[in-house]
Sequence to fold (135 residues):
Amino acid sequence: MQLTREQFELIAPLLPRQRGNVRLDNFVVVNAILYVAANGCKWRALPSHYGPWHSIYTRMSRWAKAGVLDAVFERLQRQRLMQVRIEAVSLDSTIMKVHPDGTGAPKKTAPRPSARAGADGAPNFIWLPRVPATL
Fold:
């Protein structure tokens, strides 16, 4: 999943204009993003010929928040340059919270005896309503 320069020129107007002294060309960044998407690797495992992984990740994050990547992938699909599926979900087990009942611990079904022996028996006091003495 790599773009040629000719294919990149079709989506280049969708990308933000590069200003100032920029180390990474948008062409390299788009191909690095496609590499990570195709191989499912971590950003740190990005080959060094793409450039610093953190710079590419930062630019990708900004583009994703601004909606640039959605437009790029849509254009790639409409032009039939690449078969990219936008509907992808990634779940990581480190972000899932499990209810305490779902941990697999044995359930406590037997009633626990009270610390005092008579606590589970009859009540220790009886409440009687007071009857007025003037009847």
Remarks:
- The longest helix spans residues 26-39.
- The chain has a mean pLDDT of 77.
- The helical segments are 5-11, 26-39, 53-66, 68-78.
- Residues 61 and 69 are 9 Å apart (CA to CA).
